[in-house]
Design goal:
heterodimer; A: alpha+beta; B: mainly alpha
């Protein structure tokens, strides 16, 4: 027999409502997957409302109005900067990144001189939060095995991820994903690479003990680099 | 599409919002979640997107973003991934024009491998929007039996789907 919570989730799916969350087993997931596939196949379903599309467009446009003069892109860049989307966030401003990078350097035994060489950010809480705490570390490697950077994850509430990458002459935006022990993938944020160099500092809701790996994905969906936590 | 670029972010949004929504709806099966996840994809992806990228690259990036947004959604909701977006399939479906959903074909494929009564109970509930009472009446069984039939049918469909994928 199907459990109460799974049964309730299936009835929600049949009715087109959000199913309530619970700790599902792999067998539960198989049944939910079938229920979703069947419900999505109902005739006349699958297209968005005009009202939804217009509403989202308005929200994006309003946030886009926040952009600074002189930026080389229209709205979306600023739009994403203001975004509160969970899980995926735009790169933090450069000053905060440098402050975080300084903290990362200090965390793995970097010298005071190295820290002082980086611009400090009074507004960033990352450095203070990071120093003295437990850290997971992994080296980033390109597909061919060449080392191209490092990832540090500091345990805390929230935890923080610091990443630096030096990957040839690439100028692109890459997405950072964490791979967890339970097999799931967690998006963390994006970093802009300039001539192959980029950094990311981002708070993240994850138990560092559950980390298995990290991956950088390019806009075309290919893997730029990956890392395995020891 | 290859080589073409979008004039501005609004063009990129208008050209892809339906595609992304359909992709998400086919993976979550309900409108509220599909709308939230579609919003999340655009808020996350349009920021770093470079509009001098080709339309194909923009769409590939949207698929990659949708993939990670969906994975995070399931982790929050059920602690594991219930459905996923295969990057190749996602890219293919998002490139199709007009943006049609393959969900009806997928549903038909699932039902095909089931015994008649199991197939019928799932058709009535999921495809024809019948309540459990209506389903019981059509199948000439009690409401309790209709529930049991539905649950067994879902379990069997899950097993069949798993066998087909291995």
């Amino acid at each position: 027999m199907i459990g109460n919570r799974l049964g309730a989730a299936i009835e929600a799916i049949v009715d087109g409502r959000r199913p309530k969350g619970f700790d599902a087993s792999p067998d539960d997931a198989k049944v939910l997957r079938i229920a979703i596939a069947l419900r999505a196949g109902r005739a006349g379903e699958g297209g968005p409302d005009e009202e939804f599309m217009d509403g989202l467009h308005r929200q994006l446009a309003e946030q886009a109005g926040d952009r600074r003069p002189g930026d080389d892109q229209t709205g979306p860049r600023q739009l994403a900067r203001a975004s509160t989307a969970r899980g995926l966030r735009p790169s933090r401003p450069r000053r905060a990144l440098l402050g975080a990078a300084a903290a990362a350097a200090a965390l793995v035994g970097g010298t005071v001189a190295a820290t002082n060489a980086l611009e400090q950010s009074a507004s960033s809480t990352a450095p203070q939060a990071a120093i003295g705490a437990s850290v997971r570390f992994a080296s980033l490697h390109a597909v061919g095995g060449r080392p191209v950077g490092q990832v540090y994850v500091h345990q805390g509430d929230p935890s923080w991820i610091f990443m630096t990458v030096h990957a040839g002459a690439t100028t692109s935006t890459v997405m950072c994903q964490l791979q967890l022990a339970n097999g799931t993938t967690m998006p963390v944020g994006t970093a802009q690479l300039h001539d192959g160099n980029g950094q990311l500092a981002q708070s993240v809701r994850v138990d560092p003990g559950q980390l298995r790996g990290a991956k950088l994905v390019t806009p075309t969906g290919s893997t730029l680099a990956s890392a395995t936590f020891s | 599409v290859e080589g073409e670029i979008y004039a501005d972010w609004e063009s990129a949004y208008r050209d892809n919002v339906t595609r992304v929504y359909r992709l998400m709806f086919s993976r979550v099966g309900n409108r509220p979640d599909a709308e939230d996840l579609t919003s999340e994809v655009f808020r996350a992806a349009l920021g770093p997107l470079r509009l001098n990228s080709s339309k194909g690259e923009v769409r590939a990036y949207l698929v990659a973003t949708a993939q990670t947004v969906l994975a995070a959604h399931w982790r929050r909701r059920f602690g594991l991934e219930v459905t996923a977006i295969d990057p190749d399939i996602g890219a293919r479906s998002i490139d199709e024009a007009p943006p049609l959903s393959d969900a009806p074909e997928r549903a038909a494929g699932i039902l095909e491998g089931l015994p008649d009564r199991y197939r019928r109970v799932l058709e009535l509930r999921f495809l024809e929007a019948c309540s459990i009472k209506e389903t019981a009446s059509v199948m000439d069984v009690s409401v309790s039996n209709a529930k049991v039939l539905q649950h067994r049918a879902l379990r069997m469909a899950a097993s069949v789907a798993e066998e087909q994928s291995t």
